[in-house]
Amino acid sequence: MSRREAGKYRLYKFQRTIAPYGFILPGTVFYLMVTIIPMFTGFWMSFRNWNIIRPTHPFVGLANYDMILHDPVFWQSLKNTLVYTVGVVPLQMGLALLVALLLNTEIRGKAFFRLLYYLPVVTPLSIAAVIWQWIYHPQVGLLNAALRTFGVPGQNWLGDPKLAMLSVIIVAVWAGLGYRMVIFLAALQGIPDTYYEAAMIDGASRFALFKYITLPLLKPTTMYVLITSMIGSFQVFGLVNVLTGGGPLDATNVLVKYIHRRAFGDLQFGKAAAMSFILFGIILIFTVLQWKFLGREVSYD
Amino acid sequence: MKRTARRMFCIVAAALLLISLASGISIAKRKTVIIHWQHHTPARQEMVEAFAIEFMKQNPDIEIKIESIPEADYFQKLLPALAAGSGPDTFQIPAGQVLAYARTGVLQPLDTSIPEAKSIEADFMASAASRLKIDGKYYGFPVDTATVVLFYNPKLFKEAGLDPNKPPQTWDELVKYAKAMTKRDAAGVTTQMGVATGGYGPVIISLMLQNGATLWDAKSDLPDFNSKQAAEALQWSTALVADYKVEDRAMGSRWNAFRQEKLAMVFAGPAMIGSFKATAPNLDFRIAEVPAPKAGGSKSTLLTSWAYVTAKKAQSDAATKWVAYLTSESAQKQWILKTGDLPTRKALLDLADYKKDPLLAPCMESMKKATSAPWSARSLDDALIRKAYELVLLKGNSPESALSYLTTEAVKAEKEQKELAMP
Fold first, then answer.
1. What is the pTM of this model?
2. Which pLDDT tens digit goes with each residue over B159-194?
3. Chain A nearest C-alpha distance from B80 (Å)
4. Residues 6+ apart with CB under 8 A from A10
5. A55 in B contact zone (CB under 8 Å)
6. Are A188 and A104 contacting, i.e. CB atoms less than 8 angstroms apart?
């Protein structure tokens, strides 16, 4: 090997082995700084009596976790979070898939409908909340006016502890539908037509096409949407915060809202951190279970 | 030759530049910068910015930088900033929290080389200033002070055949008036409400205090809401909705209802004067002290108050000078006119101008009778009280059981705050 070739080879080695790390370094450092390190700090905080402005943070072992497990408001907020998740995720995914299927056909004004369904996604939460508060208004609201024309008496949607969570779920489904629809739509357009053509030649019905081709091939997308929706709904905060503030009577007090109140309202950062890690554990268990039972890839290649 | 000259010229120019930079830095250094944070209302921001300009004119060696933060995000920003030592030099916190902040060491006492800081006891009302004194030293000036008064609409009074110059004096009278001013349509939908409390914490606490409840157990030095007087007051506040049907929660925001003349009377803080004037300029409203539980009874309400404090890192004399300026007599006169925040200086309460002003006179009277809450837990300002109110109203719990629940939660919350405020 001549010297020139050796130099070339060294450059090639450098480009192959060291340079890539240089490129991912800024992103990695940023991610470490804003996510990974704070996560571990939070874990460390959860074992301490941590008040953000006090210089000392005495170690208290599992006392924070113990106190949380004996806190009725924590259990109430956990239950609310589960109800919210069970209410939002299946409904939102089902509707998003349905709308995506409809918009994947050759209908007129497809672009218009796509825009229509996607609009709530780009609407700022606070503005959407104001609009929905008006829709839900017991006296002059659109919803009660519509119900009254059918002879159904008006309800106090956000003010009645029995209805408040349902009302929040409806807004959440509305707000998140468009985003999931777009993901499904992209996946649907990625399924080759040849599969459908082959099946149609064999005389498959429309339902059979959906059941044996569309659904299995959408599986990776469905998994992605399911897991991210689940995580998102466990972490719901903004919507509840602006619509109901967690009320009435803690009926919509969800976990992250409660964590926020404990931290910034009561200065109990140690307990808030412990609650965050309980939430993390719950999300982890759910995600692992989803992978285990649904995570098998399908391929017809 | 030419080149040498050019070189010389460059060197001289560079030297001059460096000298001017250095002198510029040293001039800038001589200015003390005070970063001031407060929670935001448009009127308050405008006013405090005007104060800052005036203050800097009088004190050319101090520069004030103001950051106005919406209340919803205020503590989210303030706490991490204080923890990181990058926070403001002067800022506002609720009076009940001064103890915890002072004990954690993020605050410093007011600098007594500034004359106003020496005479707080003499100049300010005890109810507004007492929570700001820790271990014998004052840590802030009172600001953002409110009581509870009754706003009412004279037009709706007249329509119902009531005299707008004679607002209700007792709880029973209030209910009678409210019934006269409540209207429903053929379908039974409320189109006009007589009165509203909104279940708002400070209002409900005020009713309890008026009724003679102490809400505090001196022996354990912790909250105690279990009393006949507190139960009666809570019962009465929920009866306005459930039994007398003069307050209808289905009408939505009580402020909007009052603006639209669909609500005759509302319990509120004086700061709503500014709000109503700004948002409903044509609305004719009046103010009265709250009615007493019985004829000749107490009109004492809860005084809620914040404090302007100085951070540990601030240059103490400049920071104290600035917060003293913000709460000076001339500034407090502006506060009341522009934002509706009541003055806390004794000298101002009996001012002839206020006595003649039909809106301000009842506010000043209520100020003299107001008492501050003995607790520090912020959840007791509204969230927990509202929950007790809703337990009775929406769940049908007895007032006694709701108050027993409230006491349990309040004791827990207060103990946590006490722990935070350990020396």
1. 0.87
2. 999 999 999 999 999 999 999 999 999 888 899 999
3. 7
4. none
5. yes
6. yes
